Amino acid sequence: MLELFFKINAHYRLSFKVGCYALLRLIVFPTRWMLGSIALKGRVLCLGCGYGVLETLIAEEYPEARLLGMDTDEKRIKVANESIHGLSNISFQVGDALKLGTNESFDAIVALDIIHHLPRESQESVLRGLWAMIQPGGELVLKDLKTEPKWKTDWAYFHDLIVAGRPINYRSVEFYENIFKSLGAEISISYPTDFYLPYNHFLLIARKSN
Length: 210
Hints:
single chain, 8 helices, globular, alpha/beta, Rossmann fold, seven-stranded mixed β-sheet
């Protein structure tokens, strides 16, 4: 974890506040597993990037990718733009990535713990809209939380309630799998095996055929 923190610090001028945020994010997020499970290149949209902490690591790990981090929080995007340095393949922009529409296209879209913060009734339509923005041969990288075991879901709910607030709507892995199967995607799903905190992470990668 400290190795990843120092990697962030090499490309990001961490204030005390953001440094604490980055350290806590690395504690609860299985970052090494996530970075080792993906392979990004081309134009990549990162949803709800916040301060851009994890996105900085992705940009450092995959120099062939051109990352656009987007978030509706102007203050966080301002901090990200003022803090990032030494990486030419990442930029940050204020905006709602979920409202871009199909006139935009990307080689990959990365959604890290974002979908469960959407209203339950809009989750499927949002995913289908994101899928429409992905180029043939591209992929959607979805990291979220499972709905079992229940005690882990209850723990994650308490965490999200304190950190981000409502809405909080976890869905089963099968919910996401069925959506992308109906879109004709090639799907791979993985779970961290060396992570010991009480969070039920999963990673789904949906690939679009050429």
